[in-house]
Amino acid sequence: MIRSGLLLQLDTVEYGKAWELQKALLEARISDTIEDCLILLQHPPTFTYGRRYKEDDLIANREYYENNGFAIYKTDRGGLATYHGPGQAVGYSIMKMSTYTNDYHQYLRMLEDVIMKTLSCYGIVAERNEGYTGVWVNKAKIGFVGVRVALGYTMHGFSLNINNDLTPFNFITPCGIQGVRITSIQELLNESISVNEVYDKLANFYSDVFQVRLIPVEMKTLMQGIGLAGNYVRV
């Protein structure tokens, strides 16, 4: 591997703050201030929807969700509605896409490969579902991919259900797919798996798929490197 990138591993970050972080890192990457980077984190209970959002994808209105403790964000990523919550690993990839592939759809497949390889470590055979983005096990969706490409650089990324509560997926039409089943590693194995352990596997397979050596970096160091305060994002 001749390429190197940065790995920022966090705990739980509010979605809006994480989005601000992505934007700051994207700007820094476009200006070549930093290398490509992967962020791994979790979010508190949050519904998000992408550019192709349809009203039907959110079964209730914003007030209902907020009154029940869910944040809701309209984002600039691809895809439709999804849910993020504690126990789900989220990966945000900030990179110059052409370094790895010139094909947007191939980039999505590479992110899916990272998830599928990670699941294989737990004896879970995952697959793609023709016509849909993401990762599936026995016709139930377990991994999600939604990205944005701006000026040839990527942001947003993927999520993998580990130990998270799956009930909130019933409050939306996940990914706009009517009747889709959602699963998690915990549900499939009937045991709880450490999120940090899955972080490590995701980072290793991301490194393998994209042929990049990931260098762990602290938030304060990264923020100082792009000229922002270390507490830019509260975790």
Task: Walk me through this protein's architecture.
By secondary structure, the chain is α/β, with parallel strands linked by helices. The strands form 2 sheets. Strands 1, 2, 6, 7, 8, 9, 10 and 11 form an 8-stranded mixed beta sheet that branches. 29% of the residues lie in helices and 29% in strands. It has helices spanning 15-30, 62-67, 104-120, 185-189, 195-210, 219-225, and strands spanning 3-12, 37-42, 46-49, 71-74, 81-84, 88-96, 135-137, 140-150, 153-161, 181-182, 212-216. The chain is built from 6 helices and 11 strands.
What percentage of the residues does DSSP assign to strands (E)?
A: 25-35%
Order of helices and strands: EHEEHEEEHEEEEHHEH
Report the structural category.
alpha/beta
Shape by Cα distribution: globular
Q: Specify Rg, calculated over alpha carbons.
A: 17 Å
Report the uncertain regions.
Answer: none
**Main beta-sheet strand count, sense and barrel state:** 8 strands, mixed
Number-wise, the strands total 11
Distance between the termini: 32 Å
Annotation field: number of helices: 6
Average pLDDT across residues? 91
Quaternary structure type: single chain
